[in-house]
Design a protein that fits this description.
Blueprint: H1 6-11, H2 16-27, H3 49-87, H4 95-113, H5 121-130, E1 136-137, E2 144-146, E3 161-166, E4 169-174, H6 175-181, H7 188-195, H8 200-209, H9 218-236, H10 238-246, E5 252-254, E6 267-268, E7 271-272, H11 275-288
Parallel strand pairs: 2-5
Antiparallel strand pairs: 1-7, 3-4, 6-7
Helix pairs in contact: 2-3, 3-4, 5-9, 6-7, 6-8, 6-9, 7-8, 9-10, 9-11, 10-11
Length: 297
């Protein structure tokens, strides 16, 4: 089985302690559960609970990846044997293609380990690269504005009610809850608490209570988390999808001027980054281009 470098693991989103757990699991050939992967002594100290969780998560990714690689190798071997029986010869294995396959299966293993839905990873990356993170002035007179679930166009708000399935579970009540749960991909109990919260505000409050244990790269990962949650809602919420589709040629802007000012996710007095609105627009444009089938891989 071909190897994958630490650099490739970190580029795929693994933190340094996850990489340690990944390597430990790959060395422990007999391990079938991340809890059975041998952990370095310093991780076992109580004060290192967040690092211990990341180690276990990296081990979980490795075990899933190894299983996926084994399945792919078996299918390739069976295909070669069939070709040999039918034609008396078999194709040569392209090692470059095997390496590309290993990286694609790593992305799949990461998605499975996080108990998330499966938004097309290429689409997620494409949208992430298209989001403009520079502050600018938006033409709010021409844009479609929303703020919170109860105002005009409240359905566009991440806080609005929406029945979703994500992370292997039904019963998510909002896009916001799915977004907040991604702060804690290693803590299934906390994810459940967020999922079972009565509304989006309560889900957000639970996540904020545990700010100290959220994933350490959240500042850079949060845009990807919002993209994933938005794609899942577009796929599963027909009313939301219909509204976003109807606005494919309009700017969608979260106007926080009269509420809790937030110039990153929205705008204040027409100025801001408006990341949430940009993501909704970018996903909407993909639907309008009749590529909705590409949203989920």
């Amino acid at each position: 089985m071909s190897s994958i470098s630490d650099t490739q693991l970190m580029r795929a989103g693994l933190l340094s302690d996850m990489v340690v757990g990944f390597r430990a699991a790959m060395r422990g050939r007999m391990a079938r559960d991340p809890d059975h992967v041998e952990m370095p002594q310093h991780f076992r100290e109580d004060r290192n609970l967040p690092r211990r969780a990341e180690f276990r998560h990296g081990a979980r990714i490795a075990l899933i990846w190894r299983q996926l690689r084994t399945g792919a190798a078996t299918a390739r071997r069976e295909d070669r044997n069939r070709q040999f029986r039918d034609q008396g010869m078999a194709y040569c294995i392209d090692q470059a293609e095997v390496r590309r396959e290993a990286q694609a299966l790593l992305r799949e293993a990461i998605a499975q380990a996080e108990h998330f839905g499966r938004p097309n990873p290429h689409l997620v990356d494409e949208i992430r690269k298209s989001v403009d993170l520079d502050r600018r002035t938006w033409n709010v007179d021409e844009a479609v504005l929303y703020y919170g679930p109860d105002g005009p166009d409240g359905i566009l708000s991440p806080m609005s009610t929406s029945e979703l399935k994500a992370m292997g579970e039904r019963g998510w009540t909002s896009l916001e809850a799915v977004y907040q749960a991604q702060k804690h991909p290693f803590d299934l109990r906390l994810q459940d608490a967020i999922r079972l919260a009565p509304d989006a505000a309560a889900a957000k409050a639970i996540a904020l209570e545990h700010r100290s244990t959220r994933r350490r790269d959240w500042a850079t990962h949060r845009v990807v988390a919002m993209i994933r949650a938005t794609i899942l809602r577009v796929e599963q919420d027909a009313a939301y999808r219909s509204r976003v589709l109807s606005l494919a040629d309009r700017d969608i802007v979260e106007d926080t001027t009269e509420g809790q000012h937030h110039e990153f996710w929205g705008v204040v007095s027409g100025s801001g980054v408006n990341v949430a609105g940009q993501i909704a627009m970018l996903v909407g444009k993909r639907i309008a281009a009749q590529d909705a089938r590409l949203l989920i891989s």
